[in-house]
Amino acid sequence: MGCTTSVILFKGIRTVFERNCAYMCKQQGENNALEYTAYNWTKEDSELLISSWLAKPKLIEPLDYENVIVQKKTQILNDCLREMLLFPYDDFQTAILRRQGRYICSTVPAKAEEEAQSLFVTECIKTYNSDWHLVNYKYEDYSGEFRQLPNKVVKLDKLPVHVYEVDEEVDKDEDAASLGSQKGGITKHGWLYKGNMNSAISVTMRSFKRRFFHLIQLGDGSYNLNFYKDEKISKEPKGSIFLDSCMGVVQNNKVRRFAFELKMQDKSSYLLAADSEVEMEEWITILNKILQLNFEAAMQEKRNGDSHEDDEQSKLEGSGSGLDSYLPELAKSAREAEIKLKSESRVKLFYLDPDAQKLDFSSAEPEVKSFEEKFGKRILVKCNDLSFNLQCCVAENEEGPTTNVEPFFVTLSLFDIKYNRKISADFHVDLNHFSVRQMLATTSPALMNGSGQSPSVLKGILHEAAMQYPKQGIFSVTCPHPDIFLVARIEKVLQGSITHCAEPYMKSSDSSKVAQKVLKNAKQACQRLGQYRMPFAWAARTLFKDASGNLDKNARFSAIYRQDSNKLSNDDMLKLLADFRKPEKMAKLPVILGNLDITIDNVSSDFPNYVNSSYIPTKQFETCSKTPITFEVEEFVPCIPKHTQPYTIYTNHLYVYPKYLKYDSQKSFAKARNIAICIEFKDSDEEDSQPLKCIYGRPGGPVFTRSAFAAVLHHHQNPEFYDEIKIELPTQLHEKHHLLLTFFHVSCDNSSKGSTKKRDVVETQVGYSWLPLLKDGRVVTSEQHIPVSANLPSGYLGYQELGMGRHYGPEIKWVDGGKPLLKISTHLVSTVYTQDQHLHNFFQYCQKTESGAQALGNELVKYLKSLHAMEGHVMIAFLPTILNQLFRVLTRATQEEVAVNVTRVIIHVVAQCHEEGLESHLRSYVKYAYKAEPYVASEYKTVHEELTKSMTTILKPSADFLTSNKLLKYSWFFFDVLIKSMAQHLIENSKVKLLRNQRFPASYHHAVETVVNMLMPHITQKFRDNPEASKNANHSLAVFIKRCFTFMDRGFVFKQINNYISCFAPGDPKTLFEYKFEFLRVVCNHEHYIPLNLPMPFGKGRIQRYQDLQLDYSLTDEFCRNHFLVGLLLREVGTALQEFREVRLIAISVLKNLLIKHSFDDRYASRSHQARIATLYLPLFGLLIENVQRINVRDVSPFPVNAGMTVKDESLALPAVNPLVTPQKGSTLDNSLHKDLLGAISGIASPYTTSTPNINSVRNADSRGSLISTDSGNSLPERNSEKSNSLDKHQQSSTLGNSVVRCDKLDQSEIKSLLMCFLYILKSMSDDALFTYWNKASTSELMDFFTISEVCLHQFQYMGKRYIASLTKCVALLLPAWNRNDACQIAAAGQPG
């Protein structure tokens, strides 16, 4: 009923206005005569007319914010809401966040920083050791859209349930249908136990009697519960319970299970019991439903009775007493519930807005995480057993388990046949039984060679005993697919040819004699040649089912194939694997009888007790020597940028692969067939120098050794090798570091022939070769062909061929004339050394200049330009180190050309990251890793100042357009660096305590202003040719300007916003409007937007109180100057309302979302805060009144449907009305309107005067028709076409800045959004502000104000369930091609509110 009364009230007031101001209606003909006929106009014609008629609004100079807050300091401090006027002192701060790794200690060796001499190595170590440097904005959570506010529930769990008159009949029908109740109809029946309720006798179990109960509805609508002795209900009942007198139904299990009690008005009660809990609940539910219907019927009677009462107080008392006498307890509980509901805070207005419920996070900034070590698909490989068919007991006394007759050694690695490469390091496993390992116990101490310090820094944490026999490894695969194989290569102790050694294992007969013979030979070989290995067999299995990384756990290893001595290399293995799925080819390979049991599984995130490839334990590591350790195996990630991650830990590994030795033509040695290669890593070529203990050992030996042997091929003069030797490189490499390879002929002949001395000679040196590790300062990694010498003189590294048979250095005897007989390759996996020549040269030159050499600008520019040729994956891998050095060079540059070229390199790096989809790395760098250099005024400059100047140069029209386009496209990075540099500069140099206008020099203010001015032509002129770049630049500039409010002179920032806005004009293309309102959206979302607008009195003379505030209800120049941002936004919205629909929607959305944010902001939750905010938006009233004729639409359907028009015709029947009209000045209404009426409006005098109609005399029985029946047209009477705009000259400052106003209607979504803004301000503003507005406004403005209020009632009127249902059907009929969900959504949209 409230809505109906409101409409009648508004219509009554309006009638009085029209009665006193009838002459206003004369204006209709004059206005119509000025309208242009536009039935044949196109949209382009209209745009042309608008752009030619709409003058560019004049810019209003903002106030000098910093001076104002100083001048009004006392007034601000005395304001009770001073927190709305001042920025907080702790607005931002810098912080250091400890770098969190997954290891128990730093991965950088203890003395690495001291040892490092190269600038690149030093900077890399600093990168991995440094903590994260953050700039924290305390109120940053409030700087986004309303959906990103903290502590805000976007969706309501449940709205309070209300019953509307329009739905009462529908509800009654539904209730009747649900109960199945009709006259005389059966509603419920069944057997119950009835307790004897005689007050003289206590109720016991025995007093219950089983009766058949029948619930029936009588003719008057009341209900009786009859009970019978049996199911024959046609007889007279034994008794009846009249539910009209029932007060409530409650469960009562004190006497009997499943019992419930009916409490009656006369304080008596009936105790009934069911046979089961379910049946009891059914009875209680249906009886309570009946009581609820009785209660609602009583309430309706009460309301009907009240409508005939004149005295309001007597009505209240009468209804209360009548209800109490009827259902006192229910009435009491209902009143309590009503009081509780009213006492609770009302739901915020915008909670009910459909736009506020949309989960749209498109404007949210991406979550930024710090750099962290990332892996591909991780696979746990468990090595369980290797057993061959040939077995026996190896113990001397033959007491013990049956095992393999000799030791075998397994090496696991991953091969990718799709990309034809080995993708992991080797994982060595010893699966031999303890008794079999004992066969090697007396091996030569070469495996345990040497003493001295190993690279491991984890003494006391890792126990070598626990690491000697690993059985579990974790492999990682960045690009999983089904063509990746896990390959197991099996070796044994050197004994003879592969064919001869494998023959006993290939026979199916299990002869103990054969086993004993093999065992005997094996024992002799282990004693004599235990340190030498020979290839024996191989097996493989697939890893993945698909490219998603799902493990193929059901796959098993293939048969164990004998190793072919002519197909040993990794290339040969890839060829074999290519035929793995071809049974006809695999069947030709010789098979060794045995079984390899290795399983694979996924790796959980909390997997315990493992070490990485450098043997650094993770945080889940247990320091117990008995706990088995799992080893991570290095992945050889492809050198592709998109698969590369920025390095975060120290790793410095070199993998060495001897591949081939051509010795068939050598004449230097008499016998060189069973050739073993011993690899050592040395830092000197002196005669007595020792190899470094930095080679990773094999199972059963020490963790690190001084030498490693490759597998030996029996009787091969040109042996191939597949071995991988892993070396931990020193932190700082120098020219003397080299690999030394010693070749031995190993005597396998163990016959009794010959002298004892001859038999004891196991190995004979047959040559030496060496490979210096550094070439031009970089580690050698390409495949090398090197000669072999017969001797090894001291200083052999100094040997140089001078040509013409001459040489420099010691005398060396070359084998086979110095031909390159050895093929060897190396693979570097290092996070402190780079293979890229350009990057190496740049850092090397920087090191020279830092060490005192004179920096030549031209030279530096040359090295900077060469960085554009840097490999993409290297750039990504060393990203933080590279960017840090570039910014360091930028601040130390003495020439503009150097600074500009540095910036160009940074642009190139940023563009490469984006093009590879690795933008997240850049965001991580800016937020966590970037740290401005310490500022020394005499020596260095600041990054923000130098970068701003360089950006200006690059944005000049004469500059390279490709570079400037990249700068525009990825400008967010540069603006974010500027912001962080400014913040760190202010705090670290204690400038944050200075006044805002003293924090930065005038040169920097000029540089910022220049950047803004240089950017604008790119944004406003390139949006067609380069839309992505201009759009990104526009958004990035907005974010930068917004953050400048935190650091800089806020008046200066206002001027930059003015500079920005000045580049736009009415009639711009839609894209430019999008840019402009995106800019305003971002800037107005500043966390301190309210203090920036200074919601406080601005007056001359004495300090004003807020209560004395002369409020601005229109967009005067003074208002826009004093409240700059809100004034600018409202002016731009007003201008946009004169544009076409797409532009209007964008502008209205920005305004409404900002108001939603104010409403949900918990910092301004109180009524007084909201009222103060509302004062900033009071000029919106004037804006809406200017457009009242376009808002004045009552049709609430989602689309107009005219009678007698088909759907097909309707699409063509657009209103042929010119959207432009020039308003004429008319006379204002006489100010002598009835004082009582104005008093009634302002709430001072009684509204019941002779000039108002008798509101009570207007009656309407049903509110469903009240709004519809007041007028038969599609919209409210359009009085604005009958009158002129009556805004007073002294009050009005034209919102549009021109004389052209559109008069076409806004669509429903626009109207609703504007009305929601109107209602929010109306709801939030103080009563004093509203009364002041009513008293100051002209009569025409008041009429328009109430017209807008009335439109609100129509637009948000609840039409009832039947209307929604019928609308859904209508939509389904009109749009049969749409699905049912679409129809329902349109129906919901068409329902107001």
TrEMBL record:
GO terms for biological process: small GTPase-mediated signal transduction. Residues 651-829 form the C2 DOCK-type domain. CDD domains: C2_Dock-D (cd08697), PH_DOCK-D (cd13267). Residues 185-292 form the PH domain. Residues 1266-1278 have a biased composition (Polar residues). One of its GO terms (molecular function) is guanyl-nucleotide exchange factor activity. Pfam families: DOCK-C2, DOCK_C-D_N, PH. Residues 301-324, 1252-1293 are annotated as: Disordered. Residues 1279-1291 have a biased composition (Basic and acidic residues). It comes from the Eukaryota. PROSITE patterns: C2_DOCK, PH_DOMAIN. Belongs to the DOCK family. This is Dedicator of cytokinesis 9.
